[in-house]
Amino acid sequence: MAGRHHSTATKSLRSPLLLFTLSLLAFAILFYIFSPSPTLPRTIHSTLNPNVDYSFVSSLEKFLINSKSHHTLPDDTVTATVTPQDAEKLDDLISRKQTERLYDDSFYPLSSPIRVYVYNMPSKFTYDLLWLFRNTYKETNNLTSNGSPVHRLIEQHSIDYWLWADLIAPESERLLKNVVRVHKQEEADLFYIPFFTTISFFLLEKQQCKALYREALKWVTDQPAWKRSEGRDHILPVHHPWSFKSVRKLMKTAIWLLPDMDSTGNWYKPGQVYLEKDLILPYVANVDLCDSKCISDSKRNILLFFRGRLKRNAGGKIRAKLVTELSSAEDVDIEEGSAGEAGKAAAQSGMRKSVFCLNPAGDTPSSARLFDAIVSGCIPVVISDELELPFEGILDYRKIALFVSSDDALQPGWLLTFLRSVSPAQIREMQLNLVKHSRHFLYSHPAQPMGPEDLVWRMMAGKLVNVKLHVRRLQRVVKESRSLCTCECRRPNSTNPPLFS
């Protein structure tokens, strides 16, 4: 009896202790899951490589110095009138090469990289414009009509530099394996036009710029390769929506590299841009990368942050309405501001202190702010109904951003209620994903695998078969045929289903 009593007493003592221990353990687990300031695992890495240049200004300086010592090929200027026979001769050579690669597995394995011919344009379209930027970027009084520094805008849209610098680098220094530069046009899948349309728009006098645009138009369209395909296999960087505007309608068959599609009609006219033909590229971020350690150490006590121009035109009118709705709320920081060194510092500081970053439409559906938020570890809240995103065939933005319709966002109290309902666990998961995804939005030299330059060519690989289809179809369809094909994606109306015309 005594032994039985001792056993029972021991069990009665252990039970409360066990319950207390389990309770503490459960509480710790719940605290970890729902903690408002989560600590991110240090095993998730997204840090800058010290041997890689991520700064446009720094990279450009080195690029121009090296370009003086490198032997350059003669430019491709056409000195005589190109006849239909010239285009047919080139087409026969290209067709022969493509056929060889199609049937010779050893010559053309399934994993073969895209072959790109980079035009050797006269220096007034390329190096002279880069030198013009380099020699003037320290000027601080060159502003756009809304107060944004011109040189900073050029940096944000400098995708033409990053792609070109990678393509023409010595092959021994390049890291990307899914694209290779070829020096014979008959070996090319695609043709790259290295004209710096944004620099010329902002840094040349208006009439001088228009004259240069007309010269570039004539130079490119005089090429036998352009005449062969009517430009369908040519890549044209026009990343700022104002650039090349006076003549680009005459090159609308080319593959355009764009910041977005803009359905308002203010920047691109109907039939000029569409996803089946063109490619969306991210802006160059205006803030420094907040890596895994930075995000883990950040004290994010602001729920929602926005810094930028509060009044915009066209699709950006929603900004003023959102400011009225949000400006008086607690733990929300809405600031008027523009680009520049002071603006960069303020934006970077605000984003690193905030859980969510507001990304409303501006004059166009997109802005650099989205990519600033991504590399800052601040979860983007996208309120832009017409936005198209870079590399969406590869990346799932639902893992790193919240998408809210304009109608919902403008309902009184709706947006803040929605953001406060996002659980700490979901916030933690999205922050982890931001750390992992930031590499896809960091332009660099040398270009890095899975960086934006790499993803450009992965997306191009998906377009290539369709490009060749329409080039071949163009060459054999009877010109008077009513069955014309432009790949243009038309919006459905009440009587016609959606189609590809």
UniProtKB/TrEMBL annotation:
Q: Which protein are we looking at?
A: Exostosin GT47 domain-containing protein
Question: Which ranges does the record mark as transmembrane?
Answer: 12-34
Q: Name one Pfam family in it.
A: Exostosin_GT47
Per the UniProt entry, the signal peptide is none
Species: Fraxinus pennsylvanica
* Keyword set includes Cell membrane: no
**CC annotations in GO:** Golgi membrane
Keyword annotations from UniProtKB, A to Z:
Glycosyltransferase, Golgi apparatus, Membrane, Signal-anchor, Transferase, Transmembrane, Transmembrane helix
Q: Where's it found, cell-wise?
A: Golgi apparatus membrane
Molecular function GO labels = glycosyltransferase activity
InterPro entries registered for this protein in UniProt: Exostosin (IPR004263), Exostosin_GT47 (IPR040911)
Lineage of producing organism: Eukaryota, Viridiplantae, Streptophyta, Embryophyta, Tracheophyta
Q: How does it sit in the membrane?
A: Single-pass type II membrane protein
Please state which protein family the record places this protein in: Belongs to the glycosyltransferase 47 family.
- Keyword Membrane attributed: yes
Q: Which parts of the sequence belong to the Exostosin GT47 domain?
A: 112-417
